[in-house]
Every structure is written in structure tokens, then in C-alpha cells.
Amino acid sequence: GAVVSQHPSRVICKSGTSVKIECRSLDFQATTMFWYRQFPKQSLMLMATSNEGSKATYEQGVEKDKFLINHASLTLSTLTVTSAHPEDSSFYICSARKVSGGLQETQYFGPGTRLLVL
Amino acid sequence: AQTVTQSQPEMSVQEAETVTLSCTYDTSESDYYLFWYKQPPSRQMILVIRQEAYKQQNATENRFSVNFQKAAKSFSLKISDSQLGDAAMYFCAYRSGQGGKLIFGQGTELSVKP
Predict the structure, then answer these.
(1) Pair B19, B109: CB distance under 8 Å
(2) How far apart are CA B94 and CA B2, in angstroms?
(3) Angle at A5 between CA B101 and CA A70, to 5 degrees
(4) Which of A33, A47, A51, A104 is nearest to B97 (CA)?
(5) CB contact under 8 A, B102 and A38
(6) Taking CB atoms and an 8 Å cutoff, what residues of chain B touch A93?
(7) A42: which chain B residues are within 8 Å (Cβ-Cβ)?
(8) Which residue of A has its CA nearest to B99?
(9) How far is CA B10 from CA A39, B21, B34, B68, B79, in A?
(10) What is the least distance, in Å, from the CA of B106 to any CA of chain A?
(11) What is the pLDDT tens value at each position of chain A, 118 positions in all?
């Protein structure tokens, strides 16, 4: 398998502040990472695809200026929620793609970050 | 566009029994991958099993096996000898063989009764 970590696991912040979430692939290099948002009892909603060394690709309806993504190295991607508001409260999950054996690809997921904006 | 459908929002199984979770998908591609992920109450997504579309043989991982019907675009998950720890949300997912993003189904919440 492969390990993906996320930090912090839980964060509470005041409305208007910015929050940064880190996603790390611990034992493999990931040129591509993904950021998801998940509401209770619902499926994962892809927010953006993060490519190392280039700009992230955002899904339709996701504000790129609000959800800043940086993928500065092959093992680290960050998601910054800028000027957070209560409606941004959610569970955020990152995922890293591991490539092995030619075109074999598997996505491994971080444990998620619960964000609560007061 | 590809879609993944899980028509069972909730399923229940008795401990030690067998349960099958359904998943259908729609695609015009011939090269793709299918996955089942498990999300327990901790909310950590765990890969359960994967299937390459070009392989006719159904994937198996211990108590977990799939019934892959390519022509019918069906990809069900069978859990044998169900255990309490199998209780979780299960997501079926599709990915193009050309790479790209995972497309998830709506999820099926599985409960296991002792």
C-alpha cells in the first residue's frame, strides 16, 4: 500500500480567516494529487486536480480564488481556504496518485480534515 | 460523460453472512478501471479492490470479490463471511484508462448485525 497524510485533522476557525490544509504522500512521489469535499452521508465531490509544478485544474463551480492549491513538490500539496465562511465548513479529503509498473495507477487517500468555520 | 450509479443507499447483513453491493456505470470507453472503496466511521477511504476492464477474470481480495459484467456495465462487490468491521460506506468508482479523475457513485451504507 501507500500512505497519505493530512494535517490538521480538525480545525476550527473564525469567519474571515484563512486555513491551510497540507497533504503529503509519505512513501511515494505523486505528480498528481486531488482535493475533495464531502458532506455527511454523501459522496466525494472533486474540487480540483493538483499537478506538481503547474497550476491546479478546478472543477466547474469551484472558486479558484477561494480554494488556493499549491503543489510545490512531489510529496506535498496544500489547500488554502481563504476568507472562510460557515458554508465552507465541511470534510476535506486529499488523494495522491501512485504510479507503478508502467501504467498501473492507484489513488490513495488521506484521512481527511474536518473544517468548522464559526 | 461517464457516470457511476449505486442504487442501494443502505444495505444490511447478518454477521458471517454474504452480501452483494450493486454498481452500474456508463461509458463509451473500452479501457478503464473500476474500484471499490470503503469509508468506515473514521472517514478514511480505503481501497478494497480494483478491476482492469481488459481483464475478464473477476478480481478477488480475501473475503471481497467482484462480479464484473462488462457488456452489462455492472460491477458488484460481494463480501463473504461479513464481519462487524465491514460496516462502512462503500463507494464504487470509475477511472478512464487514459488517467484522469475518479468518478464516484453515491455510496452504499452497509451495516452488519451481530
Answers:
(1) no
(2) 8
(3) 60
(4) A104
(5) no
(6) 43, 45
(7) 106-107
(8) A105
(9) 17, 9, 21, 21, 15
(10) 5
(11) 689 999 999 999 999 999 999 999 999 998 899 999 999 889 999 999 998 888 899 999 999 999 999 998 999 999 999 999 999 999 999 999 987 665 567 889 999 999 999 9
Interface contact B42-A95, CB threshold 8 A: no
- Give the three-state DSSP class for B69: strand
Q: Rounded to whole angstroms, what are the CA distances from B98 to A30, A69, A97, A104, B1? A: 17, 24, 13, 11, 14
CA distance B12 to B16: 12
Q: What share of chain B is helix, strand, coil (3-state, %, to 5)?
A: 5, 55, 45
Amino acid identity, residue A78?
Answer: T
Helix (H, G, I), strand (E, B) or coil at B72: coil
Sign of the torsion angle spanned by Cα atoms A63, A66, A72, A76: negative
Give the whole-angstrom CA distance, residue A55 versus residue A111: 24
Other C-beta atoms lying within 10 Å of the C-beta of residue A27? 11
What are the residues whose beta carbons fall under 8 Å from the beta carbon of A76, sequence distance 6 or more? A22, A23, A24
Taking CB atoms and an 8 Å limit, are B109 and A41 in contact across chains? yes
Q: Assess whether the previous peptide bond of A8 is cis (omega < 30° from 0).
A: yes
State residue A36's pLDDT score: 96
